[in-house]
Amino acid sequence: MNFWDTVTGGDLTREWKAYEARAEALPADHRAAWAEIKAHLSPYGDFTGRNLMPILDGALGLLEETAAEGQGAREVLGEDVGGFCAALAGGEGARGHRDRWRAQLNGNVARKLGRLGG
């Protein structure tokens, strides 16, 4: 990966297109599960989403393996895809970008109020 690709996100675009091409080869129920996984994992991404690429690659690999073995997507993921994605992202209590921003904002406000009051 060169500097230009890192700055412009060209490497992410190529990876994303490769993931989508791989997903198109999956059976319909696995493609639907892929769409749900992407939707549930997006809150855990950083500004660029670069931190999610290895997680998405692993999840897509799991879907590919289960499709090759003839298993249904729900057999492997279960009915709680959101919980599955939270576990992939770092645990059930994993903080998303909204949670991090909220904590940062609360900290900034507390510091400002502390300066004004003291």
Describe this structure in words.
Helix 3 runs antiparallel to helix 4 and helix 3 packs across helix 6. This protein has a single domain, classed as c-terminal domain of poly(a) binding protein (Orthogonal Bundle). The protein starts with a helix and ends with a helix. The protein is 73% helix and 0% strand. The protein is mainly alpha-helical and 118 residues long. It is flat. It contains seven helices and no strands.
Topology:
Elements: H1 3-8, H2 10-24, H3 28-41, H4 53-68, H5 73-77, H6 81-89, H7 97-117
Helix pairs in contact: 2-4, 3-4, 3-6
Structural class category: mainly alpha
Q: Give the low-pLDDT segments.
A: none
For the record, the CATH class is: Mainly Alpha
Q: How many β strands by DSSP?
A: 0
Helicity range of the residues?
over 70%
Mean pLDDT: 84
The CATH homologous superfamily is termed c-terminal domain of poly(a) binding protein
Q: How many structural domains does the protein architecture include? A: 1
Which fold name corresponds to the CATH topology? c-terminal domain of poly(a) binding protein
Report the β-strand fraction as a percent range. under 5%
Q: How far is the first residue's CA from the last residue's CA?
A: 50 Å
Shape: flat
Count every helix, treating DSSP H or I runs of 4 or more residues as helices.
7
